[in-house]
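FORM 7B - TANDEM STRUCTURE REPORT

SECTION 1: FIRST PROTEIN
SEQUENCE AND C-ALPHA CELLS:
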Amino acid sequence: MSQDQTGPSSPAMLVGIQELRHNWGWFLGLGVLLIIAGMAAIGSSVWMTGLTVMFLGWLLLFSGVIQAANFFWRKQWKGFFIDAVSAALYILMGIVLIKNPLEGAVAFTMLIAILLIAGGIFRIAVCLMSKMEHKIWLFLHGVVSIVLGGMILQEWPESGLWVIGLFVGIDMLIGGWTLVMLAFAAKNMPSGMDDAGAAPA
C-alpha cells in the first residue's frame, strides 16, 4: 500500500519543512521588525490609534466606491437600492473616519468595551452551565474580559484615544515574538527532517 500523501511525511509537508529551514532568516527579520513596530505602537498608542482608524476609513471609502461602480453597472438588478444605500453609507463612514480618526476611535472603543463585557459574561455563563474539564480557564478568560471592558469604560472617552493603538501594538508584538521563535526553531531543525519518512512504500 502506498504511503499516505497527506501525512506528516508527505512530499508537500517535507517541502514545507525544507523551505522553512532554508528561509529562517526571513522569519527572524520580519519578527524583529514586528517587535520594533509593536513597541513603537505601544509607546505612541494615540498616534497608532489615529492611523489605524484612518486606514479603516480608507478601506470603507474604497469599498463604497467599488459598490457604487457595481450598482451603476447593474441598474436593472432587484437589489439596486440596497447596493446604493450600502455604498453611500460606506463612503460616508469612510470620509468621517478619515477626517476625524480620533473621534471615530472613541466610538469604536465603546463598542470594543461592550463586546469584551458581553463576551466575558457569555463565557462565565457557559462555564457555570457546562460540566467540561478545566473550565476554570474559560471562567478566568471571562473575568479578564469583563475587567478589561470595565477598565475601558471607566476611562472612556479618554480611553478611546489609545486603546485601539495599544491593542494593535500588543498584537504586533506577540506576532513578532511568534515569528522569532519559529525562526529559531527552523534554524535548529536537523537536516535529516527533509528525508524523514521518505522510505519507499
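SECTION 2: SECOND PROTEIN
SEQUENCE AND C-ALPHA CELLS:
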Amino acid sequence: MRGKLTCDKVNEYITSLNTMAAELIRIQRVSYNKLSKEQKDCLMEYKNAAYYCPNETTDKIFLLESEVKRFTGKTDLVLRALNAILRHCGRIREIRGGGQNRIIFQ
C-alpha cells in the first residue's frame, strides 16, 4: 500500500464510491421534475462532464473527482493515493479534460 493507507481505508473508499455510483444511477432514473435542486445540479454537472468526453464515457459509470472529494471528505493527497492504488489494480481509470477529472469504473 501507499504511504500509511491500510486495506480498511481502501475498502472504505471503495464502499463510498459504490454508494455514490448507486445514488447517481438512482438520480438518472427518476423523472427530472421530481428531483431536488441539489440533485438537478448534480445531474446537470454529470451531463456536462459526459459531453466533453463522449467516446470514453458512453455507457460507462463515472464519477467526478470534485463530487468524490465533497462526499468522502478526504484531502487531495489521500484521494490521489487511493486513486493510484485502484488504478494500479485496474479497478478504475481516470480521464482528465474539460476542467474536470472523471473516475471511470472498469
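SECTION 3: OBSERVATIONS ON SECOND PROTEIN
Residues 28 and 43 are 7 Å apart (CA to CA).
The chain has five helices and three strands.

SECTION 4: SIGNATURE
Preparer initials: ____
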